[in-house]
């Protein structure tokens, strides 16, 4: 088994309290399923959207965010899968896809 | 939570209090997505709201004035955290809810605005949910709530519970609002369902809150609590397993919540002191007689009729007169009931109430006048406000058979 990082990008705020609660149910169900199948390494965290960027040799600090709201990274999860293909297949269940977000699947470099 | 934050921020900052709660809720949902819902979500939310309140106080205390009565304590870093901690304590939270409840019953607000405001601020109903509780349009309720909030904001401070005179003079409006809240749940004209148990539960919760306050625990409040308990006890039987509405006569009384009936009897006993006989006393007494009859046939209709006679002098209304006529029909026969029904003053105010023609139909049916009964039930059916009521009325119409014999 190899490890992969799911990087979530997408619209951050739900349109209504009802939609937010539904999203909560879906996310919990999805992560539970990953966990039950033995793919969940660390459920990860949501991220705040404000940020600072520290750049270059001169170490200047710039205030973020740096992308359109819909392209911002809003959370991450660490999973285990046989290979990149399987990790990507598993990511199809992610509720963020239903609200036009996306999941980037990146293999953790291993020796 | 909004109540506590309003106490801290001041009633003129109600919108800020609501924003903080909304924000705490959104953040919680986001974290729970990943980390799961904690064992005690409401305590967790309270903690988040408390931290956010402190943030807001620190950040904005130069730009805004907060609750004037808490004054300088909010401005000093030494006192602000312990004060907020104390205000979030369980007893303080109860008092805050009462303060907001009394503030909502502001004399310049119409009764329905008071109830809408209580539902929205204290019971956490969204505008949409409040609208459906009142069978009103979203925009109408939105307007009503925002106007009411403006009135509230102009009063600058929350109601002061420690002034016994003010308390006593506002108390009857608060009781009335709770009574209306309960009625809306019990007899509500909602589109989807005829019974809103959640409204009844909120009414009971808030009434108990009022009872827990030494100035609020009057005989009338006890009577109101009794009335709500008896009504709530009957809720499980009001709608049967297939979702049909059951009249009091056909309910499966074994489904009545005996624990609530006993609670109600306790409150009723507590209400029997002092000189004032309120409409809540009389209605609770009527409900108690129903609750203590294990079969509909065992009901003591004679006493109920005389209680309605009292009620109609305390609070005359077409609905009270209607219920009195039903009791008379039970006690003295359908013919007398019909007489009383037709003699109701202002009975045109019942012209959209489906149970008025339904009752006429029922009484004609009992006298064997099938054609007349059918006519009344057809009229009732055309007035039915939700599928449950219409199903019930269809079934009564079918009971009239097809021929006239």
Q: What report would you give on this structure?
A:
Chain A is α+β, with helices and mostly antiparallel strands. Chain A has one domain: 2-Layer Sandwich (Alpha-Beta Plaits), CATH 3.30.70.1060. Chain A is 25% helix and 34% strand. In chain A, the strands form 2 sheets. A 4-stranded antiparallel β-sheet of chain A has the order 2-5-1-6, with helices on one face. In chain A, strands 3-4 form a two-stranded antiparallel sheet. In chain A, a hairpin with a 4-residue loop joins strand 3 (52-55) and strand 4. The longest helix of chain A is centred in the first third of the chain and has 20 residues, at 17-36. The two termini of chain A are 13 Å apart. The mean pLDDT of chain A is 88. Among the domains of chain B are: 1-88, no CATH class; 94-196, no CATH class; 218-299, no CATH class. Chain B contains 19 helices and no strands. Chain B has helices spanning 2-9, 14-35, 41-60, 77-87, 90-104, 111-122, 127-133, 138-154, 164-187, 197-211, 219-238, 258-271, 279-292, 301-314, 318-332, 334-342, 355-366, 370-383, 387-399. In chain B, helix 7 (127-133) crosses helix 8 (138-154). The radius of gyration of chain B is 24 Å and the shape is elongated.
Task: Offer a quick outline of the entry.
Chain A has 111 residues and is an alpha+beta fold. Chain A is 25% helix and 34% strand.
Task: Give the helix tally of chain A.
Answer: 2
Low-confidence stretches of chain B: none
Helix and strand content put the structural class of chain A at alpha+beta
CATH architecture tag of chain A? 2-Layer Sandwich
Overall helicity of chain A: 25-40%
Structural class of chain B: mainly alpha
Order of helices and strands of chain B: HHHHHHHHHHHHHHHHHHH
Overall 3D geometry of chain A? flat
Give the helix proportion of chain B (percent range): 55-70%
This entry's quaternary arrangement is: heterodimer
Total DSSP E strands of chain A: 6
Our measurement of the CA-to-CA distance between the termini of chain A, rounded to an integer number of angstroms, reads: 13 Å
* CATH domain class of chain A: Alpha Beta
Question: Which whole number gives the mean pLDDT of chain B?
Answer: 83
Overall number of strands of chain B: 0
String of helices and strands of chain A: EHEEEEHE
Overall body shape of chain B: elongated
Continuous helix count of chain B:
19
């Amino acid at each position: 088994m190899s490890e992969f990082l799911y990087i979530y990008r997408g619209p951050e705020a739900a349109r209504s309290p009802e939609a937010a609660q539904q999203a909560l149910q879906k996310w919990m169900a999805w992560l539970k399923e990953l966990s039950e199948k033995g793919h969940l390494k660390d459920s990860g965290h949501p991220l705040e959207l404000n940020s600072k960027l520290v750049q270059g040799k001169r170490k200047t600090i710039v205030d973020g965010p740096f992308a359109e709201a819909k392209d911002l990274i809003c959370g991450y999860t660490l999973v285990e899968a046989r290979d990149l293909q399987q990790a990507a297949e598993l990511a199809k269940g992610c509720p963020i896809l239903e609200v036009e977000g996306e999941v980037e699947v990146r293999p953790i470099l291993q020796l | 939570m909004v109540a506590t934050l309003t106490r801290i921020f001041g009633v003129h900052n109600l919108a800020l209090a609501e924003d903080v709660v909304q924000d705490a809720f959104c953040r919680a949902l986001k974290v729970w997505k990943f980390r799961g819902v904690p064992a005690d979500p409401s305590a967790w939310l309270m903690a988040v709201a408390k931290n956010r309140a402190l943030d807001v106080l620190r950040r904005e205390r130069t730009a805004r004035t907060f609750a004037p009565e808490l004054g300088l304590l909010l401005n000093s870093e030494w006192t602000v955290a312990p004060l907020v901690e104390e205000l979030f304590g369980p007893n303080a939270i109860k008092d805050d809810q009462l303060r907001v409840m009394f503030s909502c019953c502001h004399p310049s607000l119409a009764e329905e605005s008071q109830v809408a405001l209580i539902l929205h601020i204290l019971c956490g109903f969204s505008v949409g949910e409040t609208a459906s509780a009142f069978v009103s349009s979203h925009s109408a309720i939105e307007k009503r709530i925002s106007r009411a909030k403006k009135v509230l904001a102009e009063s600058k401070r929350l109601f002061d519970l420690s002034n016994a005179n003010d308390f006593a003079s506002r108390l009857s409006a608060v009781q009335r609002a709770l009574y209306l809240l309960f009625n809306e749940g019990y007899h509500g004209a909602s589109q989807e369902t005829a019974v809103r148990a959640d409204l009844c539960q909120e009414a009971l919760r808030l009434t108990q809150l009022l009872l827990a306050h030494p100035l609020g625990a009057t005989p009338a409040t006890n009577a109101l609590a009794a009335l709500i308990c008896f009504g709530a006890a009957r809720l499980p039987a009001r709608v049967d397993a297939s979702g049909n509405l059951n009249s009091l006569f056909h309910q499966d009384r074994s489904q009545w919540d005996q624990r609530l009936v006993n609670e109600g009897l306790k409150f009723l006993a507590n209400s029997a002191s002092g000189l004032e006989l309120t409409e809540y006393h009389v209605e609770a007494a009527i409900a108690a007689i129903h609750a203590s009859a294990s079969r509909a046939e065992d009901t003591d209709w004679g006493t109920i009729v005389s209680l309605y006679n009292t009620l109609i002098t305390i609070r005359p209304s077409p609905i009270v007169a209607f219920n009195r006529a039903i009791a008379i029909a039970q006690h003295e026969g359908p013919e007398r009931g019909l007489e009383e029904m037709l003699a109701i003053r202002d009975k045109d105010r019942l012209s959209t109430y489906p149970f008025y023609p339904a009752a006429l139909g029922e009484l004609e049916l009992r006298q064997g006048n099938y054609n007349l009964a059918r006519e009344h039930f057809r009229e009732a059916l055309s007035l039915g406000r939700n599928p449950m009521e219409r199903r019930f009325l269809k079934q009564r119409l079918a009971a009239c058979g097809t021929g006239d014999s």
